[in-house]
Amino acid sequence: MVVTDFFASEIATELLKQLIQTTRKSCLSKERAVQLITIIQEIQPIIRESQYSGVELSGHRQVQLDHFSRTLVEGLELSRDVLASKRWNLYKNLQLTRKMKKIDKKINAFIQGPMQAHTLTDVHHMRFETKEHLDRIEGSTRLLEQSLSEMRIGGGGWVEEALRLREETEVESDSFGGGALRFGPSVEVGRRKVREMIVHSKDKEVMGIHGIGGSGKTTLAKEVSKDDEIRGYFNNRVLFLTVSQSPNVDLLKAQIRGHIMGNEGVSSFDLVPQWNLQYDLGTPTRRTLIVLDDVWSSSVLEQLQAVSGAPGCKTLVVSRFKFPEVNNDYEVELLREQEAMTLFCHSAYGQKSIPPGADKELVKQVVDECKGLPLALKVIGASLRDQLPTFWRSAKNRLARGEPICESHGRKLLDRMAISVGYLKRKVKECFLDMGSFPEDTKIPLDVLINMWVEIHDIDEEEAFAVVVELSNKNLITLVKDVRAGEIYSSYFNVSVTQHAVLRDLAFHLNSQEEVNKRKRLLMPTRENELPREWERNSDRPFDAQIVSVHTGVMNEMDWPRMEFPKAEVLILNFSSDSYFLPPFLEYMPKLRALIVINHSTSNAVLRNFSVFSSLTKLRSLWLERVCVPRLSETTIPLNDMKKVSLVLCKINDSLDPSTVDLPQIFPCLSELTIDHCDDLLELPPSICRAQSLKTLSITNCHSLQRLPADVHKLSSLAILRMYACPNLRMLPPEICQLGCLKYLDISQCVNLMDLPQELGNLGQLEKIDMRECAQIRRVPRSASLMKSLKTVICDEEVSWGWKDVVKPREDVQVVDKCF
C-alpha cells in the first residue's frame, strides 16, 4: 500500500512528534538516566552514614532509613534498565515509566516527611535538585498517560509509530519475506517462473503455488499480483482474494463476479444479489487474473472455479497442497543461506548483517535452525532482539532439539514458533494467545481487541495499546491501516489487526494443551456446522474457560447442548446464516463482561433468544455486526454495567424506536456508543440526550440519518462526536455549541451539510475538528476565533483559507487541507 494512502487519516502527526519527544526525555534518555544514577549515588553515602555512624537511632527511624535505602537501590536498577531499553520497545518503556513514578512518590514522601528534620539534614540540601529531576519524569509520565485520550480524539501515538515502522519495514521486507530478499535470488526466481507460467498458460487455465506454512507463498503471490508485466498483460484486472479454512463462498463468488463484470466495488458489507452470471461469447473478452490465496478444500476451489472460469480469466491458486484441478504448479523454494541471514538480521538487529560485537557463530546457528522459513526467521529474530546471550543460547538449544521442518512436520514448526512466544512478558503472552479466538484470515477491529483485553487482563486502555505495539514489533501480528473511504470500520482508529495463519495455528496449539474443561480459552479452529464433539462429551462438568469462541453456521435452540461457564468473561460468536439462536448457556455465564456477535453472511441475521440478555448483569461491552437488533425495550432489562455498545452493519431502526426506547434506562452507565454502516437509521431516539455518562458518540456511514436530536446539548459529558459520512445530514443543531466538554468533532464527508453553527466559538474545549469533503460549507463563523483550546483543523483547500483567516493571530492552531 502506498504510504500516503496508508497514513491518510485522522491520526495526528503532531501527537506522534510529541510522544516521541516525551519518551526521549523520560525513559529513553540515557543522559537523564545517568543523571539520576549520579543523584542516587550521592544520596546513598549520606544514608549509609546516618545508618552506621554509631549514633543510636530509634527502631522506627532505622526501619525508615532501611526502607529508603532499598528504594534508592531500586532506583539505580531501574535507571540501568532505562539505559538498556530501546526506543521501539514501547510496552517495556510504559512499565519503566510507571515504576519511575512510584519511586518518585516514595522518595518525595520520605524526604518531605518528619524524618527530614531529624536524620536527613544533608539530604535536605540535595532535595530540590532531586525533586526537579523527578518532577520532569512525572511530567513526562502525565503526558504518556494523556496519550490515550489524545489518540481517541484523532491522535496516533504508539499505534501511529508502529504503523510507520511497519510501513518502513514493508518497504524493505514483505510481511513474510525480506526486503533485500524481495528481489533476491529465491524470490526473484519464483516470481519469474510463476509469471511465465501465467502468461504462457491457456485461457481458463488453473495454475498454482504451493509450499509448507510460513514458506512465503502469500508473499510470492502478492509480488506476482503487483508485477508490472503481469499488471500490463491483464490491463490491471487482477483480483487477490483470501479464501481460508472457513470461507464465505457466497461472498467470494460475488466478488469474483463483480470483478469480471467490471463492478469492482463489491465488498464485505454489500448485500449480494442472487443472480447468475451469463457470459456473452459474442463479445470481446477481457483478460482477468483471479488469485485465490490460502485454499484448503477442493470442493471450495470447484465452486469458485465455476465462477472464475469465464472467458479470458485465469486462476492462480495458493495453498499448502497440490490440487488435481491445478494444471501447472510451482513449489515455493525456501530461502538460501545468505537470504535467510539478511532477513533474520533485519528482524533481530534492524540491519541487513550481523553487527560488530555479536556472536557470529551463535547467530549463524540460530539462523540455520530456522531452516530457511521466512516466517520463522522473522518471528524468532524479533523475539531475540535486545536479549542477552543466554537467551540466544537457550533459543538455539531449544531449536536444535526439533526435527527437520518439512510438510509432514507441521507440529515441529509450531514448536519452533512457540519459542518466540515463551520470551514474551506474561500479559503480552496472554494477549497473543487470545488471538486464537478469532477466525483465520480476518481483519480484527482494534476496538474489539482493546475492549476485550481491558475487560479480562486487568489492564487499562493505555497498556492494551502498548501490548498491540509490542506484538506488532515482535512480528506476531500485523497492523493494517484501512483506507477510510468505503471501509467497513470507521471507528476512531480505522486500524485492524491481522495474523498469519501459522501464528494463529500456534495460538490455538498453545491453548489446547490442557484437557478441554480446564482450558483458559475454549476455541474452535474452523467453522463447523455444530459444536465440537469434545465439548458435548464433557458438558456434564463446568468449563473453566475465561474466553469462549464459537464459529458455526445456522444454530437453532436444539443445536446448543447444556453447558456451564462459571468463569467465562468473554464470549465470541462467529456464524454465517440469516437466523441465529443465541446460546442458552448465556444464562450460565454470571461473569460475562464482553459479548461479540459477528455474522459473516451476506445478509443481516435475525437474532433469537435476545431475552437472555436479562441474565447478563455484569456485561460491560457489546459488539453486534450484521444482525437485526430486536426492540431493546421489549427484551432488555437495565444493564447497569454496560459501558460500550457497537452496532456495525446492523438493521437497528426498529430497535431504537423513539416512542418506546429509553436508552438511559436500559444503559444507565453507557460511555461509548458506535453505530456504523447502519443504513436504516433515520434518527436517534431523543432519550439519548439524557445519557449523562455518554462520552463518545460515533454515527458513521449511516446514509439515511437526517438529523441529530435538538437536545444534544444535554450530553454534558460528551467529549467525542463523530458524524462521518452521513450524506443526508443537512445541518447541525445550534445547540451543539453548548457541549462544554466536546474535544473532537468529525463531520467529514457529510457532503450535504450546509454550514457550521454561528456560535461555534462557544465550544471552548474543542481541540480538533475534521470537516474534509464537506463541499457545501464555504464559510467559517467568526466566533471560531474564540475557541481557545483548538489545535487542529482538517478541511478541504477551498475552506482552509477561511479557517486560516479566522485563526490568523493564533500560532498554535494548525490548519491542514487534505482529502481522503
- Rg, please? 29 Å
Spatially, the strands of the biggest sheet line up as 9-10-11-13-15-17-18-19-20-21-22-23-24
**What fraction of the residues are assigned to beta strands by DSSP?**
5-15%
Q: Helices and strands: which structural class?
A: alpha/beta
Major sheet attributes: 13 strands, parallel
Please bin the fraction of helical residues. 25-40%
Backbone shape:
globular
Tell me, rounded to a whole number, the average pLDDT.
77
Q: How many H/I helical runs?
A: 27
pLDDT below 50 for ≥5 consecutive residues: which ranges?
1-29, 117-152, 170-184, 265-284, 403-409, 483-493
- What is the end-to-end distance? 15 Å
